[in-house]
Amino acid sequence: MSTLTVLNPATEQPIAQLPQADMAETDAAVARAKVAFPAWRAVAPVDRSRLLRRLATLVEEHADELARIESQNVGKPIAGARAEVGMVANVFHFYAGAVEKHYGETIPVAGGIDMTFREPLGVVGLIVPWNFPLNISSWKLGPALACGNTVVLKPAELTPLSALRLAELALEAGIPEGVVNVLVGKGSVVGQRLVEHEDVAKIGFTGSTEVGREVMRGAANTIKRVTLELGGKSANVVFEDADLERAAAAAPYAVFDNAGQDCCARSRILVQRSVYDRFAELLIDATRGVRVGDPEDEQTEMGPLISAQHRESVASFVDGNVLFRGDAPTGAGFWFPCTLVEATNDDRIAREEVFGPVAALIPFEDEAEAIRVANDTPYGLSGSIWTKDVGRALRVSRALETGVLSVNSNSSVRHSTPFGGFRQSGFGRELGMHALEGYSEVKNVYVATDT
Ligand code: NAD
Which of 106, 172, 221, 385 has the highest Cβ tally under 10 A? Predict the structure, then answer.
C-alpha cells in the first residue's frame, strides 16, 4: 500500500503519514455506502435532522482541535481557521433544519391528484480541493446527508486531515457506519474511479476548471449528475463615487485572504480612472498593513502558500509593473508576499487564475467599460461593486455575469445563501436551500381518482 506524507506548509515539516486508497479500496467504500443507503434514506426526517444537529454540536465542541488541524495542514492563520470551523457548524445546523423543510408539492391536474417527491440519489461522490478542506466538505456533506444520500468523500491529497476527523465526529454523532466514508488518495485514482463508478449517482466536485472538464467527460458514460464549483477570476469594481477609504481598506482581504488561494479572490481590481491614483495609494497603504507570518500567531492575517510547486506557479505571474510587494518571512515555509501589479485585462495575470496573493489593478473610464471588462473573462464566480449610488449598484449587479456578488462588501459565502458560478466557473449551487436541488431528484406521481 502506498503512503502519503502530509506537510505543514508553514514549516515544510511532515505532520502525518497516511495510507493511500487504491482502486479496490475505492470500490469497497462505494460498496459500503451502497449497503448503508436503504437504511439511511429510511431514517425518519426528524431523526436525520437530530443526527445532523448533533454533528453540528460536536463540531462546535471540537472547534479548537479542528481549527488547529486545518491551520497546520493548510497554513491558515489560526483566527481565520477558527472562523471557518464556525461556518462548518452553521452549515450542519442549517441542514439539520432543512431536512424537514425540503418537500414536494401538489399540482392541479384533471382526473386525479398529482404530487412530487424529493428522492435521494443514492451514493454520491464528493471531491474537494485543498484550499478550504473542512468548509467545502461540509458544504457538500450537509445537503447530501439531509436529502438521505450516503457519501464517499475524497479530500485533496495535500489536505486530508480535517475531513478524516470530521468523519470520526459523524460516527460519534450517531450517523450510522457506512453513511460517511472518507478516502485519502490521488485524484487520478480515487477521484477518477468515483467519477466513473456505475454505483455512484452523482459527483459534487470543487476544484480547478481543468479537472472539472475531466470530471464532466468521465461522468458522461453513466449519465452521472455533476455539480461543478470551479475556478474564478473575479472583479472588484471601484467607482469614483465609492467610499474610497472603505473600499481600499477592504480590497486586500478580498484577494489576500487564505493567501489568495480562494476561488472567490477579487484578483482583478477595476478602478475608475478619475480616482485611480488616489485609490492605488490607499490600497498600497492597506496592503502594507496585512500581517503575514506564523499561522499559530493570533494576530496573523496571511500564512504561506500550500506547496513549493504552487509557489513557483504563483511567481510565474509576476513579471513586471509591480506597484507594491510586501514582506514575507524567509526560511522554511512556502511564503509569498502580498503583491500588487498594474495590468490591462489582456495580460496573463488578468486572464488566468493565479491562486496566490497577487492582485492586478486595471483602470476603466465609465460604467459601460467597467461592465465590459469585468465580464471579459471565461469565469463568472464572484465579485464586488463599490459605489454609493444604489441605482448603479443594482444596474451593474444585474449586468455582471457572475454567480455571487456583494455591494460595498467583500462577502462571498454564507451558510444560508446560494453559492456557485456562471460560465466556466461551473454549475449547480452550494449552501442554502438551493444546494438540496443538487442532491435529490424530483419524482412526479399521478394518482387517478376517477372511478
Ligand atoms: P484540483 O482540480 O487540482 O483538485 C480538486 C480535487 O480533484 C482534488 O481532490 C483532486 O485530488 C481531485 N482530482 C484531481 N484529478 C482528478 C480526476 N481526474 N478525477 C477526479 N478528481 C480529480 O484543484 P485544487 O488545486 O485542489 O484546488 C484549487 C482549485 O479549486 C482552484 O481552481 C479553485 O478556484 C478551485 N476552487 C473552486 C471553488 C468553488 O467553490 N468554485 C472553491 C474552492 C476552490
Answer: 385
313 SS3 class: helix
Model pTM above 0.70: yes
User: Among the atoms of ligand 1, which is closest to the Cα of residue 310?
Assistant: 25
421 lines ligand 1 (CB under 6 A): yes
Contact 413, 400 (CB under 8 A): no
Q: Quick check: 362 and 268 in contact, CB under 8 A?
A: yes
Q: First-to-last CA distance in the chain?
A: 65
Å from CA of 129 to ligand 1 middle: 4
- Would you state the cell numbers that stand for residue 337, as one nine-digit string? 508576499
**Contact (Cβ atoms closer than 8 angstroms) between residue 345 and residue 362:** yes
Decide if pLDDT at 450 tops 90.
Answer: no
The pLDDT value given to residue 320: 83
Residue 13 contacts by C-beta under 8 Å, 6 or more apart in sequence?
7, 332
Distance, CA 126 to ligand 1 centroid (Å)?
11
- C-alpha separations of 340 from 195, 211, 324, 350 in Å: 39, 28, 5, 12
Residue 1 confidence (pLDDT) above 90: no
How far is C-alpha 376 from the geometric centre of its chain's CA atoms?
A: 23
Q: What percent of the chain has a predicted confidence (pLDDT) above 70?
A: 100
How far away, in angstroms, is 185 Cα from ligand 1 center? 13
| 108: helix, strand or coil | strand
Residues 196 and 186: their CA atoms lie apart, in Å, by: 15
Q: Average pLDDT, whole number, for the chain?
A: 98
Question: Average pLDDT for residues 245-266, to the nearest whole number?
Answer: 97
The 10s digit of each residue's pLDDT in 79-98 is: 999 999 999 999 999 999 99
CA of 283 to the centre of ligand 1 (A): 31
* Closest residue CA from atom 6 of ligand 1: 129
Say if CB 270 and CB 259 are below 8 A apart. Answer: no
Average pLDDT over residues 279-291: 98
Q: Buried (b) or exposed (e) across 189-208, using 16+ Cβ within 10 A? A: bbbbbbbbbebbbbbbbbbe
Q: Give pLDDT, residue 217.
A: 98
Which ligand 1 atom sits closest to the C-alpha of 218?
19
- Residue 342 is among the residues annotated as catalytic for this protein: no
- Find out whether 67 and 82 touch, Cβ atoms under 8 Å: yes
Catalytic residue among 84, 229, 301, 353: 229
CA 439 – CA 449 distance, rounded (Å):
32
Sheet with 322-325, side-by-side order of all strands: 322-325, 339-342, 358-364, 268-272, 235-238, 383-386, 406-407
| pLDDT the model gives residue 165 | 98
20 touches 1 (CB < 8 A) = yes
